[in-house]
Amino acid sequence: MESGAGKHWTEEEVKALLSVWSEKNIRKQLHGTLRNKGIFIYIAKRLQELGVYRDWKQCRAKYKNLKYEYRTVKYAHNSGDVTKTMKFFHDLDAILRYEPVTQLAAEENGRCSATETQPNTSPTTDSTQ
């Protein structure tokens, strides 16, 4: 199925993007990389192999939108609002759960510095990745 610019992503296309995104080497490259055009060009090529024809800009935009929506729902759930939901929340949770969380720490001189913390994971959950 071919889709062009401005077309909505189908459920199958999003699933294909999530399957590529869930690969460990892709997750590692995406985390903390600001200049990630090359990664999304690679993701777009991988999606073409799966029959999804999107350019790297569309892949990056969808990645950013999914990540934003996931974090919005996750924050709502952590605040006690379980009514907020999204279609691929559990898939994204499995992908993003192991990303190091960057926290801003206030320093004595009034500036902020970013520190990374790893979520608590047990050896059994790490081996399934």
From TrEMBL:
Myb/SANT-like DNA-binding domain ranges (all copies): 7-95
User: Which InterPro entries does the record associate with it?
Assistant: Myb_DNA-bind_4
Entries under Gene3D superfamilies matching the protein: Homeodomain-like (1.10.10.60)
Q: Where is the composition biased (Polar residues)?
A: 112-129
For region Disordered, the annotated ranges are: 107-129
Which protein are we looking at?
A: ZSC20 protein
Task: Write down the species.
Answer: Sterrhoptilus dennistouni
Q: Which gene encodes it?
A: Zscan20_1
